[in-house]
């Protein structure tokens, strides 16, 4: 039975744990060799935090009765031996649901009342106040108790048509009462092995949920690493499916080109006792091709499956049933495309940055070994040669002292110039300035109170934000040019070996703003949103959009600050190292006056320092090798650091 995703997720989790251990080992190593400083320590803490919080979120979107929850059961929870989440025919999850593992609390189901939609507060604000949620404890030793608790996800109630309209869930014309979901949102935490390994599942039921919750469309779904858009093979792409695709799903592909899969579920309904296997396969292929044509996708992005057969096959350990379900191809998609893509992102943002610092440390330790060797040669000359040789070394050291003082003056001047330049960049990219633009734009959007006015205000707001980012380009270029000239001067004039790291790039934030505006316009144009008639929804939409834009600027500002502290770090470390070497040489020369015995003691001390540095280098090389280790090697041979 295929368990690729289970294995890959566990491997990914092991790789993250292994990387975290390697970074912790590097932190200890820096302390041991006296090379740690605040800037490097903050960078390593940030990278450890990224490893800790970087989970894989898989989102599911579909209209009602497409078998989406059955698919979640089949993919992730078949090991419970039951249909854990309610997915029987006619039983549909009514509210968006998040499943994850919260290690700080006992397992729980929390439910947010649907009437909280009448407030302007987004879901994220309510998450900070557990008292606003209905709390149900879960017994993980009893799948049956969990099944019963999850029945709450299906519950509905009747409200007046006016209230339903305010909730964004209008009924039919002249209908006095409307059936609506009891809950606006649900969060489930329990220690399932996959959830403990860092998997988060987001289940979004129906077009109404997406149209009434801006956070889903503008934040939760775009931030998921994978999205499954589930259709039914027996109906194909319906009008409501197409509406959901156009308004909320297809824009995801541009942000996560490797993360979108369209699932054509319920292929078992196409089977007929009067049809041959080849005829059934041809019918499935026809539906797959038609779905690809309607959604303008290649057929490799369409996965015809039977979630029902997959779940039954897994629970009953029926290989033939599982093969008929074709779920293996979808598990391969998750394993090979989504997991590897996410690992590559962490590799670029965490591992490569840490390795750059270890490589700088490696250069410094190698220089320590070289300098120790030079000191031994000098001490040997002092011990065995004439007084003239000693005077020559003293003269040489004084010249190096003079050069060091120049280095120090140049470094202080360079740091001041660079920090001044970056301060201008930080002012341009300030989240406070972004907040001011968003605040004014939000007032215009809400004040207009028409969909057209909201879109116009949105466009004006993002034009202002883009102007801020455009203003940063010249500041960024000036800062980069200054940094290049600083490093070149130290290499050419002072024989420094340090390499500068990567520079700040504003283009990714411009791209994120562009995508956010596109998603905002799509949401405001969706028929389900009906912004002109829903006061609370319109305000939630505007607030969500504004907060997302401000967050982009906060991320950019934080990245500039990080760049500011790390850009000069290699030069500072090399200057400090030269200072240490200088002090050692001066101490060596002072030993001359103390006679031959003192010089011999000093030589032994330097030999010891050289030996220690060589062992430190060996330890660092081992840490670097550990950081570079591929997932496969970590799984086969868990490293002990």
Unreliable spans: none
**Number of DSSP strands?**
11
Calculate the terminal CA-CA distance, rounded to whole Å: 34 Å
Tally the helices: what do you get?
A: 23
Can you offer a commentary on this structure?
With 641 residues, the chain is an alpha/beta fold. The chain folds into two domains: 4-49 and 346-636, no CATH class; 57-325, P-loop containing nucleotide triphosphate hydrolases (Rossmann fold, 3-Layer(aba) Sandwich), CATH 3.40.50.300. 65% of the residues lie in helices and 10% in strands. The protein has 23 helices and eleven strands. It has helices at residues 4-32, 38-53, 68-76, 123-127, 143-150, 161-166, 193-196, 206-212, 214-220, 239-249, 252-255, 277-295, 307-315, 319-325, 327-384, 387-428, 431-448, 451-494, 507-525, 535-567, 569-590, 596-628, 631-636; strands at 56-62, 97-100, 108-113, 133-137, 156-160, 177-181, 183-189, 199-205, 226-232, 260-265, 302-304. The strands form two sheets. Strands 4-3-7-2-8-1-9-10-11 form a nine-stranded mixed beta sheet, sandwiched between helices. It has a two-stranded antiparallel sheet with strand order 5-6. α2 packs antiparallel against α15 (327-384), α15 (327-384) runs parallel beside α21 and α16 (387-428) packs antiparallel against α18. The longest helix has 58 residues, at 327-384. The protein is elongated. The chain starts with a helix and ends in a 5-residue tail after the last helix.
